[in-house]
Amino acid sequence: MKFTLYLSALTALLTSATAQKVSGSAQGFAQGVTGGGSAAAVTPKNIQELVTYLTDKTPRVIVLDRTYDFIGSEGTVKEKGCAPWKTGAGCQLAINAAGNWCGDNPKVDVTYSKAGTSGINVASDKTIIGVGNKGIIKGKGLRFVNVKNIIVQNIHITNLNPQYVWGGDAFTFSGTSKIWIDHCTTSLLGRQHYVFGRDKSTGITLSNNHIDGHTQWSAGCDGYHYWTIEMVGQGDQITLQNNLIEHTAGRGPALSATTFLHAVNNVWRDINGHAIEGDTAGKGLFEGNVFQNVKQVVVPDFKGQLNSCPDNAAASATQQYLGRVCQGNIFISSGAFNRKDTGFMSEFKGLPIARSTQATTAQSKVPGNAGFGRI
């Protein structure tokens, strides 16, 4: 019995030690990011220690080996919100953000955890790593504002007031550089899974993540989360690689302002609205992706430039910018996506470019590899 307990303790120790090292390295625009580097690993025992380690000015490797539950930690708010999309059991209500968002929509009572409405402001030079499937942050997201050189790997952010629009965002970026989010899962959010503000963020790679849109509350009152990836930055540079985006209804991404996006080897599946939208001058190369049961891949009034490598001529036109031809996409029971814009391709010049495989490889590998607990 004692020997068995000893082995169990030793196994747990070795598992934790292994998880203290980053798995792999960033491809694409975040290539070269080091996070906390060789700093000694620390494991926060509670939410207070977690906040301290994330926000101090010391380079750190922060190991998450449990659930850090912020729900109610900053109090519960009871106030008037509104019902923009009906009041049925499956409909999201809304917090009256900034005191005036609701406008003339019908007023309703809302009760929510204050902690979820504002994320933790992570400082520069941090590595955040989850152990197995235990690194969970519940009820609060992470914010990267005017910081640089951060790695987040193998964690799950969940339960940010999902019944309310404006209830909380999982990952927020503004004025950042060299941020790598890898093998993370986001679920049950009030607002965006990823949101990029207007201040320029460069050197960003989002890879091997699972954006899980299953919910009991949605803007469409149908269980499909609408608020997915908001990109409104001026000059943002983002690599989106090997991610699984499923059961959403829109903004996947909202590619706006002058954001430059390289979307490679991702899987969009079970999207009952649209995947790509954009209202200004966003630019995106989409290659080697899978669109499965996506009702509308791109909205017809998209304002920016897109290249989906729909034929040999379009693919060949990318070779001078990528050093290779782009990979075609796969469409399974999905809408059309035939865009050939190349006027933005010169923005790849001087940037590290993520490797690409055929879409069939993404189709077979991404769903089983994306998200936390998979490394």
TrEMBL record:
Entry's localization field: Secreted
Cellular-component GO terms for this entry: extracellular region
Record InterPro entries: Pec_lyase, Pectin_lyas_fold, Pectin_lyase_fold/virulence, PEL
S-adenosyl-L-methionine as UniProt keyword: no
EC number: 4.2.2.10
Species this protein is from: Fusarium mexicanum
Enzymatic reactions: Eliminative cleavage of (1->4)-alpha-D-galacturonan methyl ester to give oligosaccharides with 4-deoxy-6-O-methyl-alpha-D-galact-4-enuronosyl groups at their non-reducing ends
Protein name: pectin lyase
Main location: secreted
Entry keyword set: Carbohydrate metabolism, Lyase, Polysaccharide degradation, Secreted, Signal
Signal sequence annotation: 1-19
Domain annotation Pectate lyase: ranges: 94-297
Similarity section: Belongs to the polysaccharide lyase 1 family.
GO molecular function terms attached to this record: pectate lyase activity; pectin lyase activity
Source taxon at top rank: Eukaryota
GO biological process: polysaccharide catabolic process
